[in-house]
């Protein structure tokens, strides 16, 4: 991959064994990327980008104006998200083991010992998110293995700064971003399908799109919904 600059905008250019040029604009900062056939030179890519400049500017503006959460301090009154719903955090000090409980479909009660630091409170919340996400994933994996025909896939959850998910074709393993615990289940399902399809097709080429259209026809709307949801305060892309 290398970059060219078009009308003051940096454009990542990736050359692949594909037939057509593909243009993408990624959140959160409107990164522009063009996937290009191997035999198309930079000047042709530049002209293609110029022809799409109005579309690029609209989408960059949408992402740059997107709502972002302020940095979390894990104190009472903060907004936190779980499975697509917004909750108010209520910190409760007690002498028992730390725990997290959803209450009245409105509050997340965080039980911790008095004197817990911000990092310690965050760790309790992170463990709770991880546990819940790992409970969500197996039935979705089983469902989409049957639909896609993928067998014996391995999966894991981890914090990822640049992707919603990733795939290792050789190991037949997919990784899912811990942040998906905060998103609606339909977003998690979309990413699972996305990564399972990568076991067939490594790149986002025509064959990948054909598989996505076959298995999950509404995937474009789900992708837009996920990319337009509230972002963390950290700057990371998909």
Tag the structure with descriptive keywords.
238 residues; alpha/beta; Zincin-like; 2 domains; four-stranded mixed sheet; disordered C terminus
CATH class of the largest domain: Alpha Beta
| Biggest β-sheet: strands ordered side by side in the sheet | 1-2-4-3
Find the CATH superfamily of the largest domain. Answer: Metalloproteases ("zincins"), catalytic domain
Order of helices and strands: EEEEHHEEEEHEEEHHH
The total domain count is 2
Q: What about the largest sheet?
A: 4 strands, mixed
Q: Low-confidence stretches at least 5 residues in length (pLDDT < 50)?
A: 233-238
Which range does the strand content fall in? Answer: 25-35%
Content-based structural category:
alpha/beta
Gist?
The chain is of the alpha/beta class. The chain is 36% helix and 26% strand.
Give a description of the structure.
With 238 residues, the protein is α/β, with parallel strands linked by helices. The protein has 2 domains: 2-64, no CATH class; 79-227, 2-Layer Sandwich (Zincin-like), CATH 3.30.2010.10. It is built from 6 helices and 11 strands. The protein has helices spanning 42-51, 53-64, 118-148, 185-198, 206-215, 219-227, and strands at 2-6, 9-16, 22-26, 31-37, 79-82, 85-93, 99-103, 107-112, 154-158, 165-168, 173-177. The strands form 3 sheets. It has a 4-stranded mixed sheet. A 4-stranded mixed sheet has the order 5-6-8-7, covered by helices on one side. Strands 9-11-10 form a 3-stranded mixed sheet, covered by helices on one side. A hairpin with a 4-residue loop joins strand 3 and strand 4. Helix 3 packs across helix 4 (185-198), helix 4 (185-198) packs across helix 5 and helix 4 (185-198) crosses helix 6. Mean pLDDT is 90; it is low at 233-238.
């Amino acid at each position: 991959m290398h970059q060219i600059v078009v009308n003051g905008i940096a454009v990542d250019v990736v050359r692949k064994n594909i037939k057509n040029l593909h243009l993408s604009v990624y959140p959160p900062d409107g990164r522009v990327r063009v996937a290009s056939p191997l035999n198309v030179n930079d000047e042709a890519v530049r002209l293609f980008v110029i022809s799409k400049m109005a579309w690029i500017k609209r989408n960059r503006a949408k992402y740059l104006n997107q709502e972002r959460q302020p940095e979390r301090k894990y104190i009472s009154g903060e907004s936190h998200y779980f499975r697509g719903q917004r909750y108010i955090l209520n910190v409760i000090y007690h002498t028992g083991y730390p725990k997290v409980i959803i209450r009245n479909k409105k509050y997340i009660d965080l039980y911790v010992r008095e004197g817990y630091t911000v990092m310690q409170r965050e760790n309790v919340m992170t463990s709770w998110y991880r546990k819940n996400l790992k409970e969500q994933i197996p039935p979705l994996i089983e469902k989409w293995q049957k639909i896609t025909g993928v067998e014996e896939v391995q999966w894991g959850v981890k914090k990822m700064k640049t992707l919603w998910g990733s795939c290792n074709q050789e190991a037949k393993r997919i990784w899912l971003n811990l942040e998906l615990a905060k998103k609606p289940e339909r977003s998690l399902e979309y990413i699972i399908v996305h990564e399972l399809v990568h076991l067939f097709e490594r790149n986002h080429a025509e064959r990948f799109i054909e598989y996505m259209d076959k298995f999950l026809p509404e995937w474009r709307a789900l992708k837009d919904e996920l990319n337009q949801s509230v972002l963390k305060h950290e700057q990371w892309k998909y």
